[in-house]
Structure to design on (343 residues):
């Protein structure tokens, strides 16, 4: 049995020996070409897909950056606004809202990556509205929390139970701007702001302790941006050289650590007086004038 | 079938791209408005 298929390519007459089968061969070549074209288009599609995907990634990163900047700016604006209208009650409310908004923000990128297709152009308005809502709902992210954090300290001051003035003698001058009754405490809470407001942002809440009515609880928010109180001004809510006994619950971890806080105001004044006196005694003209004045006075007194 | 799947995926990613671009534009607008408010 011969296995020769007459497909010897070296045979010059070979093409003539394949009269009609040539058509078949050409069809399979076409198919092959078609497959190649398909493969090319598939690879092109893959390339395009990769390109768009990387573009998507870049866009997502850019959006995240812009969002972050927007929120930082937003929190800064809010901070400025709260300085302009310092309402103590309003500073408490956003804390709850902030947490809620933060949660919403955490859900925000998931929405981006959901991969929902929106091909219908009739839905574009609705789509844009949805996007606006999405963007507006993600106000105040975690970033703003550290941004707005003000130093808060609590001071416990012993006070006579008959005293209803809610005055804490801490050496600074305060202006009372509000009072309200809270649910958790029958004693009203008084709100003060530093007399240097609005340049000084410090605020103070004073309320009699619910656990121990012999104590007043003063909560300070912020840090004074000026020296101690002026000695030549005085009002009912300030006294010079007072000292307060503080019970630090914030840093003490519930250990009820007692610490004696000396007011720095008296110290500051003493230092100033000493500096003034030393500079005057060094001035020879001043000492001469002072000696002359004293001797003159003494002479007058001796004459009379 | 692979090609059609690729085409579908490309459509989806393109739509997402469009959405992201719109959101970015919107966010930039918001940012600029806020910036103007602060200035």
């Amino acid at each position: 049995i011969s296995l020769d298929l007459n497909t010897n390519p070296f045979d010059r007459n070979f093409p003539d020996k394949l009269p009609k089968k040539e058509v078949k061969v050409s069809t399979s070549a076409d198919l092959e070409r078609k497959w190649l074209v398909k493969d090319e288009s598939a690879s092109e599609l893959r390339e395009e897909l990769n390109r768009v995907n990387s573009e998507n990634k870049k866009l997502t990163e850019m959006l995240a950056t812009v969002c972050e900047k927007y929120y930082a700016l937003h929190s800064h604006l809010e901070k400025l606004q709260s300085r302009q209208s310092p309402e103590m009650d309003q500073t408490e409310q956003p804390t709850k809202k902030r947490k809620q908004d933060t949660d919403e923000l955490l859900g925000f990128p998931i929405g981006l990556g959901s991969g929902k297709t929106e091909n219908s152009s009739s839905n574009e308005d609705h789509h844009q509205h949805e996007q606006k809502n999405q963007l507006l709902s993600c106000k105040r992210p975690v970033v703003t929390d550290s941004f707005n954090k003000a130093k808060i300290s609590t001071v416990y001051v012993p006070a006579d139970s008959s005293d209803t003035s809610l005055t804490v003698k801490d050496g600074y001058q305060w202006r009372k701007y509000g009072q309200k009754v809270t649910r958790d405490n029958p004693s009203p809470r008084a709100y003060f702001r530093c007399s240097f407001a609005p340049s000084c942002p410090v605020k103070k809440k004073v309320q009699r302790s619910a656990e121990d009515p012999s104590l007043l609880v003063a909560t300070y928010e912020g840090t004074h941006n000026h020296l101690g109180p002026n000695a030549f001004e005085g009002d009912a809510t300030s006294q010079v050289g007072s000292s307060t006994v503080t019970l630090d619950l914030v840093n003490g971890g519930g250990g009820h650590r007692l610490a004696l806080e000396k007011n720095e105001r008296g110290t500051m004044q003493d230092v100033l007086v000493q500096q003034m006196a030393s500079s005057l005694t060094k001035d020879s003209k001043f000492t001469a004038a002072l000696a002359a004045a004293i001797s003159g006075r003494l002479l007058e007194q001796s004459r009379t | 079938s692979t090609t059609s799947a690729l085409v579908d995926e490309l459509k989806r990613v393109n739509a997402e791209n469009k959405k992201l671009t719109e959101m970015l534009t919107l966010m930039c607008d918001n940012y600029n408005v806020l910036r103007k408010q602060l200035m």
Observations:
- The helical segments of chain B are 2-38.
- Chain B touches chain A at residues 2-3, 6-7, 9-17, 19-24, 26-28, 30-31, 34-35, 37-38 (CB under 8 Å).
- Chain B has a mean pLDDT of 86.
- The longest helix of chain B spans residues 2-38.
